[in-house]
Amino acid sequence: MLINQKMNSLKNRFRNFYPVVIDVETAGFDSQKDAILEIAAITLNMDEKGWIKKESLLHFHIIPFQGSFINPEALAFNKIDPFNPLRLAISEKEAIRKICDLVHQGIEEKKCKKAIIVAHNAMFDYNFIMAAINRVGIKNHPFHPFVTFDTASLSGLVVGQTVLAKACKAVGLVFDINQAHSALYDTLQTANLFCELVNKWKTLGGWPVQPNTHKYKNVI
Fold first, then answer.
1. What is the spatial order of strands in the sheet that 143-150 belongs to?
2. Is residue 181 flagged as an active site residue?
3. Global pTM?
4. Please, which residues have CB within 8 angstroms of residue 199's CB and are 6 or more apart in sequence?
5. Choice among 61, 104, 181, 214 that is catalytic
6. How confident is the model over 29-82, as pLDDT tens digits?
């Protein structure tokens, strides 16, 4: 019982790392040149029984950074008008700093060392976040320099689906396709999916890890 209680923390579950779910909506695919238009981040918590759940949420509409490229095809896809005053957008610098502050606070509270970005097709979001961090000059950012948790890969392993909507439905989550490609909605659904996958693994007896008593042979 004491061993299980010790393992029931984000610190021990993810090797001293603090998972943070992030999604960005952008004006293209080039993280160095194309603008971030919207960003959302959700932090996670683990209860005393070892179940992971959503904790805090930040969501911002972003003013395109100076000199950024706006691809009309991207706007047609995500249906964002970057210059609509009703968006109440803030600067990339302000948004990134607020997210980093929240994550630093979570790392300290959970006694972790670094944060890990959790995202669907994670390298896309990771590259844009790292590019923004470099642009705004944050030296002591909280994120791991190269490790991510990709829910597309995890879903492919667990439920045989890699598309976010299909993976969510496969684990029993409702997914509204009309709300997709909003950073807020996609982050919420990615966080729900990640929690479902982690908790499912626990339900199946995969955590805490038990010694493997079976001897497997590779067959060619």
1. 90-91, 52-63, 36-46, 17-26, 114-119, 143-150
2. yes
3. 0.92
4. 51, 52
5. 181
6. 999 999 999 999 999 999 999 999 999 999 999 999 999 999 999 999 999 999
